[in-house]
Design goal:
single chain; Alkaline Phosphatase, subunit A; 10 helices; globular; binds zinc ion
């Protein structure tokens, strides 16, 4: 906090950091409008995988469309699509947020199909309902709190979706010869019905990780920031990142920070 990499606990900057491996001072995404995103310079990790392993099969599934519309499409070189499967389910505009649990089921089923029909080298799967329940958008009684049974219920639903994906992964005919790295995380926590601020409840998030290439002691004993996931993926795939994938950021303009008491809550 208080440095050039300090960024709000908002999904635009959060998912951009998780998928590009750099902070806001480099990727340029400050909020969910994605204005000023520098995806051509700091690209989605799957575009980088394709750059060095053109035969790799990359698949991405989400019911939060900006992940594809901005982070993935913004990372394309010209019109060249680097995602072999790109499954987007937007919540219906008239029922915004309300049908997120159903969209999560569609996302899960599409990901299950790819796991059984194809040989993916990299997959990304996003489920939206935990965030939406936290906001109280689906049921006004819910909040980002362990005291909210509706919130815990949403977590259980997503947990069972992930369980099905892991079962499908282990049921692959050649699973014994395959070498999978599994990373499960979220992009922010929450407080009440909101997030975006600097509290521990918003900033401290968890990572569940499994894979032979992981160094357990390092993950358990050191802070693992959002930007650490892409390097773990490259290491697992044997990809040596090129220096031009992560150049020095442009000098940041002088920003006069508002006093904490006046800081605007997103
Ligand atoms: Zn949210």
């Amino acid at each position: 906090m208080g440095t050039a990499t300090h960024q709000p606990t908002v999904s635009g900057p959060g998912w951009t950091s998780l998928l590009t491996g750099v902070w806001m001072d480099r990727h340029g995404v400050k909020d969910n409008r994605f204005i000023g995103g520098r995806f051509q310079t700091y690209s989605h990790f799957m575009r980088r995988i394709k750059e060095v392993q053109p035969q790799a099969f990359c698949a991405s599934f989400t019911d939060w469309p900006p992940i594809h519309d901005f982070i993935a499409d913004g990372s394309r070189k010209g019109d060249v699509e680097f995602l072999d499967v790109k499954f987007t389910r937007a919540p219906d505009a008239a029922r915004h947020f309300v049908d997120n649990p159903e969209k999560d089921i569609e996302v899960r089923d599409a990901a299950l199909k790819t796991l059984s029909d194809s040989d993916p080298d990299a997959m990304f799967v996003y489920f939206g309902q935990v965030d939406e329940f936290g906001h109280g958008a689906i049921d006004s009684r819910a909040s980002f709190s362990p005291d909210s049974s509706l919130y815990l219920n949403a977590i259980s639903h997503v947990d069972s979706h992930i369980g099905e994906l892991l079962r499908a992964m282990r049921a692959r005919p050649r699973f014994a010869e395959e070498d999978w790295l599994v990373l499960i995380t979220t992009d922010h926590g929450g407080r009440g019905n909101k997030h975006g601020g600097d509290s521990d409840e918003e900033r401290q998030i968890w990572l569940a990780a499994q894979g032979a290439s992981l160094i357990k002691e390092k993950l358990l004993n050191e802070a693992t920031p959002q930007t650490a996931l892409v390097p773990l993926i490259y290491e697992h795939l044997g990809i040596q990142p090129k220096p031009e994938w992560n150049p020095e950021p442009p000098p940041s303009p002088i920003v006069i920070e508002p006093k904490p008491a006046e800081a605007k809550k997103p």
